[in-house]
Amino acid sequence: MDTNRKQRGQFWLGMAVSLICLAAIFFFIEPAEIVAALETARWGYLGLTAVGIILFLLIRAIRWRFMLNNDIGLAPTFHIQNIGYLVNNFLPLRLGDVAQAVLIGSVPPVTISRGLSTVVVTRILDMLFMVILLPFTLAAVDVVPVQVQETALFVGILTSVAVVILVIAANQRPLARRIATAVFARIGRLNTAAWVQRIDDLLAGLSSLTSLKSGLILLVTTVLTWLPIIAAYYFGLTAVNLTPTLAMAGFVVCAAALSVAAPSSPGQIGVFHAGVIFALTTILGQPEGPAASFAFLYHAINLTTTTLFGVIGLFATGATFRHVIDTTRQFANRREEKTEGLS
Fold first, then answer.
1. If you placed Cys at 37, which of 148, 186, 293, 331 could pair as Cys (CB 3.0 to 4.6 Å)?
2. Residue 39 pLDDT more than 70?
3. How many structural domains is the chain composed of?
4. Which pLDDT score is estimated for 311?
């Protein structure tokens, strides 16, 4: 019951955040400006945006398959990944990530725990890439003041060093556990064992980076995964008659990726739009109408594309949406109850 109450609270918090973001968008931007930008949009470029999203899904599946030691074929990996996106589009709490682990765990020799660990690692890799890319893209945008560019470059270098330290810690997990234990033990009213375990789980997720060959492959495939999305943003921004650079597109990609980490409704409605519009208008100084029209157009194309490929994945794997949801919720509830027992 406590788990269900917590999940309902998270759901309504996400819905509230999404509604607030949408309300803020239409309060500060006249809908007529958005409509005017949409009327002059160049739709051919939006087709290239969809192609970029499809390439992103394909390369991401190749990377995930490599993390699973190529134990299963690319086709089932691709379809299961897309089913996860389908679930995230329509259900809250990022259940699609858990659905990926549950579904891939039903394909021998992969297990659910192994599938879950690789899903976590993919999220960590993507977030680390965004955190590193963000300041460097900001430093390369000409419209940003020189002082901000210099600060962004410094933050980028600092972030890169922090990631290197994190990778070193993943290679020295016993030492990292001892340091974490010593630090957390000094903090009152804190379950030291539980927090040290969480730190160790994070470092365990980075274990694939402890091998030089595997680390380099994951680094290259992570960069290749996100290049089509940067291109998709570039073409989408061009479609609404903005004049982007690749650095601008990369910066907006980072802003969008970080914004959807906030609580939101299914499909990241509202928070995605607010993050993109804020990055384009407030940081990059772009006009509000085209910025907002890009946010809504890109989100619609992304939602449509990932939903379509998710439905194809259901047919290809012989699964049903209801079965996926039921098994995923059962696993998620058991995992949540186990986590609460440790805290």
1. 293
2. yes
3. 1
4. 97
